[in-house]
Amino acid sequence: MALLVEKYGGTSVGDVARINAVADKVASSHAQGNDMVVVVSAMSGETNRLSELAVEVNPLAPAREVDVLLSTGEQVTIALLSMALHKRGVYARSYTGSQVHIRTDSVHGRARIVDIDDARVRNDIAQGRVVVVAGFQGVDEDQNITTLGRGGSDTTAVAMAAALRADECRIYTDVDGVYTADPRIVPEARRLDHITCEEMLEMASLGAKVLQTRSVEFAGKYRVPLRVLSAFEDGPGTLITYEESTMEQPMISGIAYNKDEAKLTIRGIPDEPGIAYRIVGPISDAHVNVDMIVQNVGADGTTDLTFTVHRNDYQKALDTLTEIAKELKARDVGGDDDIAKLSVVGVGMRSHAGIASTMFHALAEEGINIQMISTSEIKISVVVEDKYLELGVRTLHKAFGLENGRAAQSE
Ligand code: ASP
Ligand code: MG
Fold it and tell me: Which of 56, 134, 298, 321 fits a 20 to 30 Å CA distance from 14?
């Protein structure tokens, strides 16, 4: 018998048949003696539909009102799932985020959870009830409804699990775990039995859209036992771990990609102290996040700087950079949004040389030009032309032997 927090995403509650299937699953786990808290998303497509409605009525709608609207999607599914559970003889109770006191800050649209008052949930569990909680939403100090950002139900589930010290937090989704690469691109990709939290964080932030990045950060902070599994097929899924096992640690766990970035370059700027700040400062003042940054070794007293931003911010960043270029009397400014970022991720690379050379060699063999490189302790990323995204991912997956786990094992 365990205390489980289970989260079901939009496709898993996409219609009545699927809601019934979730109810069957929850009811059977409850019948086995487990205490259950279930977090649900809105029915698939619903949050998009609601956002579009808001834009139609008022493209400049106040963020507070948008949150009131968006939070209704999850309110529908908690009620329906609870009804379905009652039909199966399970006493269930649904709660909105504000009812269970998922307290957040007041940043509408991407609020952060600051505290959960779990007294009510604990009381229900003690009475043998199944608790059904609306994902993606909370309430601020002044009782305003807030939402946690797209994909935020994952974070609700992890936060509930942390508050309740659950034995496991299970994220049920439409894939059966975390893969060595996107299986739509690499048919040979394998499901990983486990992945370290650090690696998962890299994979999530690099664009593997299995878990919301923030939920992984939250899980890491509170060491929540977290598992990703399929809502439709039985299987062990992928467990997120917090210890690096020293034995058989793969050098590389997976290949991630991101096609949401754009690249900007400023050339012929003075090579002197403060120059990077004078460029990146105004970009971040414009609320644009900078990801990779590369500065060239200066020659003849000048240097070049290249950086990447989210594609949505490309125009804004380019306008800002053009202004800066005038002030700095730069030679020129350029940009390119036809790029993709490919990354190899693995905690095992810490103790292995030669990962970068294997990576660069494999890309070279395919004639894929590398435009930028960045590294961290557990990741190497390169920027390439976006038409090479699929070929690049397949090439790297093969180069590191990920299809059969062979070369991926440390010797
Ligand atoms: N319904 C929200 C969304 O579509 C939250 C979630 O599904 O996690 O982003
Ligand atoms: Mg999701």
Answer: 56
pTM, two decimals, is 0.87
CATH number of 255-408: 3.30.2130.10
Candidate of 7, 96, 136, 155 to mutate for ligand 1, largest count of ligand atoms within 8 Å of Cβ: 136
Cα within 13 Å of Cα(234), Cβ side: 1
Q: Which atom of ligand 1 is nearest to the CA of 152?
A: 8
**C-alpha–C-alpha distance, residues 69 and 351, integer Å:** 50
- Looking at residue 314, what DSSP letter applies? H
For ligand 1, atom 8, name the residue with the nearest CA: 151
Site to probe by mutation for ligand 1, drawn from 40, 47, 48, 216 as the one with most ligand atoms within 8 Å of Cβ, is: 47
Q: What class, spelled out in words, does domain 3-174 have in CATH?
A: alpha beta
| C-alpha 151 to ligand 1 mean position (Å) | 4
107 CA → ligand 1 middle, Å: 17
Q: Say how many C-beta atoms besides its own lie within 10 A of residue 408's C-beta.
A: 22
Site of tokens 């949050």: 47
For residue 356, give both structure tokens: 């970068």
Cβ-contact 67, 35 below 8 angstroms: no
Task: Say which residue the tokens 């970035």 belong to.
Answer: 261
Locate all alpha helices (DSSP H) within 223-294, ordered by sequence. 275-285
Question: Which bound ligand lies closest to the C-alpha atom of 48?
Answer: 1
pLDDT digits (tens), the chain, 411 positions? 899 999 999 999 999 999 999 999 999 999 999 999 999 999 999 999 999 999 999 999 999 999 999 999 999 999 999 999 999 999 999 999 999 999 999 999 999 999 999 999 999 999 999 999 999 999 999 999 999 999 999 999 999 999 999 999 999 998 899 999 998 999 999 999 999 999 999 888 776 678 998 999 999 999 999 999 998 899 999 999 997 665 566 789 999 999 999 999 999 999 989 999 999 999 999 889 999 999 888 778 899 999 999 999 999 999 999 999 999 999 999 999 999 999 999 998 887 888 999 999 999 999 999 999 999 899 999 999 999 999 999 999 999 999 876 444 433
- Element holding 381 (H helix, E strand): strand 379-385
How far, in Å, is the centroid of ligand 2 from the Cα of 210? 7
Taking the CA of residue 212 as reference, the ligand 1 atom at the shortest distance is 8
Where do the structural domains in the chain lie, given as residue ranges?
3-174, 255-408
Question: Which residue lies with its CA nearest to atom 5 of ligand 1?
Answer: 151
